[in-house]
Write a structure and sequence with these properties.
The protein has helices spanning 20-53, 56-76, 91-107, 129-137, 141-152, 171-181, 189-217, 228-268, 275-280, 295-308, 323-326, 330-351, 359-363, 371-380, and strands at 158-161, 166-169, 282-286, 366-370. It has 385 residues and is mainly α. It has a two-stranded antiparallel ribbon. Strands 3-4 form a two-stranded antiparallel sheet. Helix 2 runs antiparallel to helix 8. The longest helix is centred in the middle third of the chain and has 41 residues, at 228-268. 29% of the residues are buried.
Amino acid sequence: MVEEETVAEEKYIDIHPLKKGRRVLVFLADFFIHFILTYLIFNIAAAPIAKFATNYEAKNEEHVQTTAEMYDHYYNAKVLLRDVIFDRTDVTAGVEYTYRCFLSYFVLDSEESIDSNVPQDGHKKENDTVYHFYHDIRNSEQTYYDSFDYYNKKNNYFEYNDVTKEYNLKIEVKNELYAFFDPKDEMGKTGEKYYKDISNNLFNPLLAEVMNDIEKNDLRSEGETRSYLECKNRIKELETYHGNLVTVCAYISHTIVWLGLFLLFPLINKNRKTLAMLFMKIERVDYYSMNHTKKSMVLVSAAYSLFATLLGIMFIPSMLVPFNTLFTLNYLLYGTIFSGVLLLISLFFLIFNQYNRSLTDYLSSSLYLTSEEMDEVYRAKGYKI
């Protein structure tokens, strides 16, 4: 008698990995959840606690006062002239006002101002602040003449008088610029050109040399306890403290949220999902067995996410520091750059892989499926869904 051999029936199903676009969306969803929570923890908890613990308010007030003290050296030494209408820390306004007074020295013949609103205008030697700096402070009058000659070559609007040992504006230039100082007159286009040329090609370069000299050789004005450079060095120390504070708080906030979203949450739920996967009904399975990923592979994915979500780290302190300053916080900037490079590599993997697997999917031997695809896998294995 021949026994009948029973052959088990094999089942084949087509598995369709998550599409590339949805795979990217899963990451973006997790990324933005992480970013928002990090931003909130930074501003609500981490930064306030750190500021209280390190006496931030006192240091911030010291920064304000020291900055004002540093700029006072310019005004007290009369390197810059100041009008009461602008704040002493507004150096741009100080330079513009000083240029007006500087030019008035060469345009007006009288010490009296034509415009009662600007009494500093006039042929007053103190209005030539560059001469004052080299003659009275640095005792290097020849440097003034050498620099003036050098920058005057660009337009040649000034002439040197060998008798008075002073520079004078050429008469045609002087006449065009006179209207600028007369409130009842209006300067023409030629005068506007002269005004801009002298500013850009003579005064600004001369003043820049003065500022560079101060940065190199310091400046101490009468009545001040600290010199310009002493103030500047203290400001750097305070700014370093501030930069370190927001950097450390940003990374602490980042790590706390990462622990919750990418490590603890996937480990405590049976299907090893992140929040984005839960909301989008996405499953993460082992690439070879089609079972849900093991805890060890969750650790691999979490490690990747720790660095991948650093993309937005430099923008976390945006409520505490000006936007431009964010780009000077090197350790936050490096984190963002490193994360960006890592994500580009991962995107390269995703684009050129037929199963739509990113770099982290390779590292964790995982594959992303929709919940419907996962149900088909379960059915094929004999589970009732």
